[in-house]
Design a protein that fits this description.
The protein has about 290 residues and is mainly alpha-helical. About 75% of the residues lie in helices and about 0% in strands. A two-stranded antiparallel sheet has the order 1-2. Helix 8 packs antiparallel against helix 11 and helix 9 packs antiparallel against helix 10. It is globular and about 75 Å long. The two termini are about 45 Å apart.
Amino acid sequence: MSQTGMDYLMSTPRKVVTIYVPLAIIVFVLLFPFYWMFITSIKPNEQLVNLDVVNPYWVVAPTLEHIWELLFETPYLSWMWNTMMIALVATFLSIVASVLAAYAIVRLRYKGAQWIGGAIFLAYLVPPSILFIPLSLIVVKYGLWDTPWALILTYPTILIPFSTWLLMGYFKSIPFELEECALIDGASRWQILTKIVLPLAVPGLISAGIFAFTLCWNEFIYALTFISTPEKKTVPVAIISEFVDGDIYRWGSLMAGALLGSVPVAIVYMFFVNYYVSAMTGAVKE
């Protein structure tokens, strides 16, 4: 049968070349690091160091020794709790501040609002290493060194600018007529924000929350410097500092810690990926 219009794009060979092969390559590239961490975490020690005899991409005699050592011979669960608590509290504080800032810039009409929004986004481009020294002085001066609050109060400096910019774009997509009707009915700005804008901006809030949570979970520089007690460390810092002894790397436990540490972030993205994509699309469109 002769093909008409754009039907030729649906032919099986073309779909294989243009869709399935690129998708297979992308999936392989994205999942291979997790596969490598998994097989490394269950390899016996002799297979970790003797790669010339044993196939490095497969496990001959898997073992749970490294995972057992990680969970029951180290304070890994405490590290996970520290990371989770710091990430959740810092994310909550950042989202609250970003919502208020984004709404004030987008909805309250005053001179210089757009310039302020641009300045906030430029603040996101400042490397964290530049803010490291002044933040260190503040943390030491207020007695927050080696406490979770040192990270909870410094993480918003890198979370609020981008979250504010993202929410600004999403707030612009909400019809302003809804607020005008509420103002005519006698609603206050706080009521408009909490009862009209925020319910409509749930995808944007989830997207900003995912971004902030992920950045807190994976942050390394501040966590390495501001926390020194082993039991108070976060997962990214702890697995590096506790499983590397000089030039000896305990790869099995190190990879097991990295793999288990990535599970919470993967779960968050798995459940909220649709909201994340829709909010990013709305922000870019504006």
